[in-house]
Amino acid sequence: MTYPPAEHPHIVVHAPALDGSRRVTEGEVTLGVASHLDDVVEILRMADLDRIEVEEDDLIDWQGGGPDEWPGLTELDH
Question: For a tag on the chain, would you pick the N or C end, based on fewer CB atoms within 10 A?
């Protein structure tokens, strides 16, 4: 089933899980799981959505923190 391309797809980077990873979805579809901002960029590229600037708040719904917030990662570095 194909859908017409959306002018602005509804991309959500969900609140961090306990390990700091964040699920990335487009509508009801999970595109991937990111552990860093670079992962979000790669997930969008793989989904052919690389025209989206990941740090633009009006195009991506950042839940539980913005693009610079990846809690849990510092605890793993120790």
Answer: N
State residue 46's pLDDT score.
94
Residues 30, 23 contacting (CB under 8 angstroms):
yes
Euclidean distance between the first and the last CA atom of the chain, given in angstroms as a whole number: 47
Nearest Cα residue to 71 out of 3, 14, 21, 2: 21
pLDDT, one tens digit per residue, over 25-63 is 999 999 999 999 999 999 999 999 878 888 875 789 999
Spell out where 1-78 has E strands.
11-13, 22-26, 29-34, 60-62
Task: For residues 66 and 64, give the distance between their C-alpha atoms in angstroms, rounded to a whole number.
Answer: 7
Q: What is the model's pTM?
A: 0.79
- Contact between 46 and 60 under an 8 Å Cβ cutoff? The reply is no
